[in-house]
Amino acid sequence: MLKKLLIIALASLALVGCAKAKTDEELVAEGWVKNPTENGFVFQEELPAARDLSKKFTPSQGAAEVNCAANSYAAACSGIGVANLDKFMNRDDVVYIDIRDYKDYTQKHFKNFEIIPYFAFIFNAAANTDTTMVQLFGGSPTEPVAVYNESVAILNAIFPKDQTLFLMCQSGARVVWMMQILEANGYDMSKIYNVGGMGQFTDSKYAKMVTDTAEFRVDVVYSLEGATRK
């Protein structure tokens, strides 16, 4: 009997060894993604909902309780943030964007987040009336006024509509305003996450993902070329 079981086990191993290796395309179809940091495939975990509207939270410094049903773009309402961002890094189906200014970004940032400064390039309330300002939109975040004929096209180029977006700033507030601008311009908000502020990611599990160069200082002059003011 033991001899018979051994023969069956060896036959099973032989069949496994002869199984055809899956192609990259087949692995991707099953939910695996190429991870450039590990030079191999990792399973791509399904993204949680962008927001949990049932949440309620009390901000620090004694501020009033916030209901996510009324303030759904707040970082505390996001399905991805300080607690779990590490599980969703380096994905090929997500665009990672930091909307702080270069000064703050240079001193400390996540390695895979590109920088698109909100205050410098995207919005200033007076940009549509003050010709010395270079931002794409003026007015208000909920009712943005395009400053240039190309404002919306530029917005769509740097915040692609067909991608999932992870947005961060210093505390999460700028991301709320950025999301309001995106909503006003027809974006699918179920694909846009306020992952919070750089200042909140103090857990040691994020240390290897962050470039921390507090010694760097940057002086920046912002300008915009090739766009036609309305």
Strand order of the largest sheet: 7-5-10-11
What is the CATH homology-level superfamily of one domain?
Rhodanese-like domain
Q: Would you tell me the overall average pLDDT?
A: 85
Order of helices and strands: HHEEEEEHEEHEEHEHEE
What is the number of strand segments?
Answer: 12
Q: Please identify the structural class as seen in this structure.
A: alpha/beta
Share of helix, binned: 10-25%
Strand content of the residues, in percent?
Answer: 15-25%
Could you name the CATH class of one domain? Alpha Beta
Distance between the termini: 87 Å
**Which geometry do the CA atoms define?**
globular
The largest sheet is: 4 strands, parallel
The number of distinct helices, counting runs of at least 4 residues, comes to: 6
Poorly predicted spans: 1-18
CATH fold category name of one domain:
Oxidized Rhodanese, domain 1
